[in-house]
Amino acid sequence: MIVLGEDELQQAEKALAPLSPAAVKVYGCLFSINRGKALNLEVVADSWPDFSVLVCKPKVQGTADREGDFNIYSIFSRDQASLKKLLSSPGLLRWDAFTLLAGVDINHLDAVTDLAAQHGVPARTQCVMHVLMLNSHDQLRVYQSVPEDRIRPLQAEHAALVNSTWKYGGDHNSYNSVLGYISNHPSLCVMDEGGGGPLSWVLLYHHLALGLLYTLPQHRRKGYAKTLVSSMAERLMELGYPVYCFVEEGNSASYGLFTSLGFTIKVSFRPVWLEINEK
Description:
Shape: globular
CATH topology of the largest domain: Aminopeptidase
Distance between the termini: 27 Å
CATH superfamily of the largest domain: Gcn5-related N-acetyltransferase (GNAT)
Order of helices and strands: EHHEEHEHEHEEHHEEEHEHEE
Radius of gyration: 19 Å
CATH architecture of the largest domain: 3-Layer(aba) Sandwich
Number of helices: 9
Helix content: 25-40%
Largest sheet: 9 strands, mixed
């Protein structure tokens, strides 16, 4: 088990860039870390420089945000055996605490569930995802349903509103996460014409996936979400960011929205969010 230093983190980012979609979540973490935007994350490799597994994890578990509270581990693995060996390393995982392993290749899932069984702890699949990506500006089908001057970045003062509507929000830890997303990464919202605040918004997680896409119920079916994703995709490409999102299997509405804008899916790669122990 090797904790990557500053130089290795830069090298790892370059190495993962062409390995999407399987590596895109850890690549996003590295992108954030290398730009000083995700201070409580570190990356562990099974070997260096010829790695087979990279795990991005909290430096300090149990911190007062959702990432620390959920002990979220982002995983890239080339094969089952290497993943099982690294996760078996003393001190990497706390088998007596709740941990969310995010982005485990479904083809490598047995390695993790076998380890959990060996430790006598429960392991439960929270969800199975698809990765939808936009690889070039030519691929994007630009869409805009509101004037440009109503599309603006979110501000710190909007964090409470976003947190109150987030599927995983509603408490102080999730509020701190939302505030961190707004403060450290690009975000966009559609503002009310009368200056009453955001009506619809999209943010980036620390791994840079598009997320928290939401429109207030009374303002739906006006194309706001589609407009925001289109505008955000353009801005992210200008900044050199990866442009992608995770869509849960069976979520046809989200799948339809992103594919209508030119996002594509590689159906052979399905990442799994796996819970170890109960929350």
